[in-house]
Amino acid sequence: MTLATAHRHVEITEKGESFVSLTSSQAARLQELRFCRVSPTTTPDVWRITDVTRIGVVAIDDVRLFIRPKTELQSLIFMASYAGGQASVHDDSFAFDSENDVPAALAAALVHEVGVATRRGLLKGYVSVADTGTVIRGRWDIARQLKVRPGIPSPVELTYDDFTEDVIENQLLKAALRRLLRLEQLSPTLRGHVSTSLALFVDVSDLTYQRSVPVPAESRLNAHYRPALWLARWILEATSWAHALGTSSGSTFLLNAALVYEEFVGRCLRDVLEPEGFDVDLQVSDWRLDVDGKVHLRPDIVISRDGAIVAVADTKYKVWGATGASPPNADVYQALAYAITAGVSEAHLLYVSGDVEPQQYEIAATGTTVVAHTMELSGGPSELVFRLRDVAEDLLSHTNAIE
Fold first, then answer.
1. Beta bridge partners of 350
2. What InterPro entries does the annotation carry (predicted)?
């Protein structure tokens, strides 16, 4: 990929620290984006960048900051597209070696998945339509008739279901493809592939939404669309989040890799455990630690059986275990609060990398044990799912929930 000569290309790391030459104004605007910490150094106009929480690319004047993920792009793309039960996924379907930055890799992945999803044509479904006509079709909307044309029998206000390609699934894919064409860093070849895919949706209306990107309810009918839909969602969120903070929508793309990891782990655990009779709830938001309900808790993963909670876990998109040190105190306190609120004797922390056996930390004062697990994110999609199955077995074996 080549950039215009007027742009300065700078790479920073997702974790650790990077030193970048910026003006004071550029440093201040980067800090305002709230995805990293920008600190001055003893060298004039050289700034220390740490605590990076997004990956992708951000443009500030003539500077293009490329934030490289600590996770392999192949694994990241697979996690972003994972929609559950993808038994037919092959590792070679997620090889994007020619696209070495996050926006381009996601664009290539979406083009691939759109091609797979629409191989037999666009998805169709029934959509409720409000229309006006002289011939009765569907249901006569009497309330609307009286409101729009009181006392006038014709034309008639009608409501009916139309079997059409203009469904939310196609609207979502169209919106993501159009958003990709605004990204200046896509290569001409990849831009051409995106344009070709977009042409499939010429008769689909534009997607409208207020805040969060809508995700269609999963069903048997849209199962073949799910990987493409999840990729589309991440693309729209990565561009919408940046644009909402006042950046140029044509040059900034910031993806929350921690959230991608969190949702992948949760959905994969659900696919593994629900067939075994467990219920897996993700992002439970109605927990309170105190009696008055003022201290809110939001565990990532809650596993129950027959209505009783048997395990609670939180994902941590951070490396732990390589040095043999215990997890950060704040993580342990959080897990302890979950265990106490759930009334279980153990809570689990799911870290990335580290490649160590689960470690247990017994809290004598409460009789609670916090168990830290790690998951290596390198390798192909089949390896990632296999490792998650091991984590699921470890998690439940620690709770003594497997009979």
1. 315, 373
2. McrC
Domain positions in the chain are 125-164, 260-399
In this predicted model, which residue has the larger pLDDT, 387 or 169?
Answer: 169
SS3 324: coil
Q: Is the dihedral of CA 180, 182, 185, 187 positive or negative?
A: positive
Closest to 126 in 3D by CA, of 158, 166, 157: 166
User: Would you say 136 and 153 are in contact if contact means Cβ atoms under 8 Å apart?
Assistant: no
Query: CA 57 to CA 32: how far, in whole Å?
Result: 15
pLDDT at 369: 92
Nearest residue to 71 (alpha-carbon basis) of 257, 264, 230, 322: 257
Is 47 a residue whose pLDDT tops 80? yes
Q: Are strands 8-13 and 63-68 parallel, antiparallel or unpaired?
A: parallel
Q: What is d(CA 20, CA 215) in angstroms, rounded to the nearest whole number?
A: 38
pTM greater than 0.85 (yes/no): no
b/e code 113-127 from CB counts within 10 Å (16+ = b): bbeebbeeebbebee
Q: Which fold has domain 260-399?
A: Trna Endonuclease; Chain: A, domain 1 (3.40.1350)
pLDDT at 395: 79
Query: Cis peptide before 328, with omega less than 30 degrees from 0?
Result: no
